[in-house]
């Protein structure tokens, strides 16, 4: 809680009827890889599978969360596309 008093940890603000921003909410989510992304291809493919499972379970990204995907290389993007996981990552944001 970054030394916040307990009463401040419970503070929240309604963003929309279905979304509430509160202490600890994720507001930035980035998935990136280096230019030689081949060494991280397995990690990114695993991330894509996790995204697919999250969608299958009904998870969605709140509108107040900024998302960013940068696979790092065309090779990794091709792996993601051919595995079908790129669509899942794009749907999540």
Question: Distance N terminus to C terminus?
Answer: 28 Å
Q: What's the overall average pLDDT, rounded?
A: 86
SSE order: HEEEHEHH
| Tally of separate domains | 1
Going by helix content, strand content and strand pairing, the class is alpha+beta
The proportion of residues in beta strands is 15-25%
Query: Which percent range fits the helix content?
Result: 40-55%
Side-by-side strand order of the widest sheet: 1-2
Q: How many strands? A: 4
User: Largest beta sheet, briefly?
Assistant: 2 strands, antiparallel
Unreliably modeled segments: none
C-alpha Rg (nearest Å): 16 Å
Quaternary status: single chain
Global geometry: elongated
The DSSP helix count reads 4
Domain Aconitase/3-isopropylmalate dehydratase large subunit alpha/beta/alpha: 14-93
Keywords: Iron, Iron-sulfur, Metal-binding
GO molecular function, one term: iron-sulfur cluster binding
Protein name: Aconitase/3-isopropylmalate dehydratase large subunit alpha/beta/alpha domain-containing protein
Commentary on this structure:
- The protein has one domain.
- It has four helices and four strands; from the N terminus they run αβββαβαα.
- The chain has helices at residues 6-9, 41-56, 74-83, 85-92, and strands at residues 12-16, 19-22, 28-32, 66-70.
- Helix 2 (41-56) packs parallel to helix 3 (74-83).
What are the SSEs and their pairings?
Blueprint: H1 6-9, E1 12-16, E2 19-22, E3 28-32, H2 41-56, E4 66-70, H3 74-83, H4 85-92
Helix pairs in contact: 2-3, 2-4
Domain Aconitase/3-isopropylmalate dehydratase large subunit alpha/beta/alpha: 14-93
Protein name: Aconitase/3-isopropylmalate dehydratase large subunit alpha/beta/alpha domain-containing protein
Keywords: Iron, Iron-sulfur, Metal-binding
């Amino acid at each position: 809680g970054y030394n916040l008093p307990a009463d401040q940890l419970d503070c929240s603000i309604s963003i929309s009827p279905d979304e509430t921003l509160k202490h600890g909410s994720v507001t930035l989510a980035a998935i990136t890889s280096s230019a030689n992304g081949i060494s991280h291809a397995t990690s990114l493919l695993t991330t894509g599978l996790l995204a697919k499972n999250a969608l299958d379970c009904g998870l969605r990204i709140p509108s107040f969360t900024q998302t960013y995907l940068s696979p790092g290389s065309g090779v990794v993007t091709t792996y993601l596309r051919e595995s079908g996981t790129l669509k899942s990552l794009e749907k999540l944001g």
